[in-house]
TrEMBL record:
The keyword Membrane does not apply. Residues 18-52 form the ChsH2 rubredoxin-like zinc ribbon domain. Gene3D superfamilies: 6.10.30.10. Residues 55-113 form the ChsH2 C-terminal OB-fold domain. It comes from Phenylobacterium kunshanense. It holds the Pfam family zf-ChsH2. It comes from the Bacteria. Signal peptide: none annotated. The keyword Transmembrane helix does not apply. This is DNA-binding protein. Keywords: DNA-binding.
Length: 128
């Protein structure tokens, strides 16, 4: 059984991200003042507090930094994880298309844009 994903709340600040996701693109933000990439996309850089941020397309590849398996769910166990993108940011996400007990820290993963219940797709990750 597939776990349903509720539609995300789309704000003026996050709309470009979700518009791109609907086109199959995974975007992150990068600060042009300090050069750091960050997640969750926001107007202000969390590193230097500059408002000089730009959208950039990410390959959506990285490694599992940490994860927890949530076993008490009506749809069965699922994995909640932090993935460190190759660009640097850590993304809190679900890992799908793998048995939770087969998941490993350091495992290579890639983004998959998963449909939601009546909204834009959201990023989840699958084994690379």
């Amino acid at each position: 059984m597939t776990r349903p994903v509720p539609a995300p709340a789309v704000t003026l600040e996050s709309k470009p991200f979700f518009d791109a996701a609907a086109e199959g693109k995974f975007l992150i933000k990068r600060c042009t003042a300090c050069g750091e990439a960050h997640w969750y996309p926001r107007a202000m850089c969390p590193f230097c507090h500059s408002d000089k941020t730009v959208w950039e397309e990410s390959k959506g590849e990285g490694v599992v930094y940490s994860f927890s398996i949530l076993r008490k769910s009506p749809t069965g166990p699922y994995a909640l994880a932090y993935v460190t993108l190759d660009e640097g940011p850590n993304v809190m996400t679900n890992i799908v298309d793998v048995a939770p007990d087969d998941l490993k820290i350091g495992q290579r993963v890639k983004v998959k844009l998963q449909p939601t219940e009546g909204g834009p797709p959201v990023p989840v990750f699958v084994p690379a």
